[in-house]
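[09:14] KT: can someone run the structure on this one? pasting the chain below
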Amino acid sequence: MPGLSHDDAATLDAIKVELRERRTYEHRLPAADQDGAKRIRSLGRRAGRELGWRVRTFLVEPAEGGGTALVLVVVTESNPLHQQLMDMRADKALRKAFESGLFGPTD
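[09:31] RB: done, structure tokens below
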């Protein structure tokens, strides 16, 4: 694989951290920056390969043509240990939300 610039290497590391922690990475950029969107999507796919996971990338463009676009990198398949960790985190977050009374009484 070709070498990365310092900025691309930092972005690749940030993507991998977010994929490990949250299973998703979001990057906003001007809608007109198509090259930037292609670069982020490419780095997202590379992060997935380096982690050994399957990922999908999406580009969500603004409804009216201007403004800010959103690039998403989403883990579709990881390893069993990572999946178990993510399930435990989700259970813990739900338990904490219910214990805080955020949802009110349950019957």
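[09:33] KT: thanks! Residues 6-76 form a domain with the Translation Initiation Factor IF3 fold (CATH 3.30.110).
[09:34] RB: yep, looked fine to me
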